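thought: fold this chain, then report.
action: predict
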Amino acid sequence: MAHQNPPSEGYVQPFVLNREEAAYQGTLASVHSSSYSALKAQVGLVLHPSELNYFESLPAERRKISFLLGRYAAKRALQAYLNEADFAKINILSGVL
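observation:
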């Protein structure tokens, strides 16, 4: 089965932070809360299986919204650095963000 990408929602902007000692590359990514329904409809394309298990265990919808939007934005920011197009293969561990 061919890999599918999650919907391309939100904003992604690479940047360089220049300091005297070095230049640091980074990426700013954000997603609007109005994107939640579209992302939830394709949650299996966005979340790693262990993230999906956690997401499904969350009792409060407000927490589910926060978790899914946060993971999506983080994966959009990491995508270029990891050279990984499949978001479901990226597992962001608890405590990292």
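thought: worth noting. The chain is about 40% helix and 15% strand.
final: tokens above.
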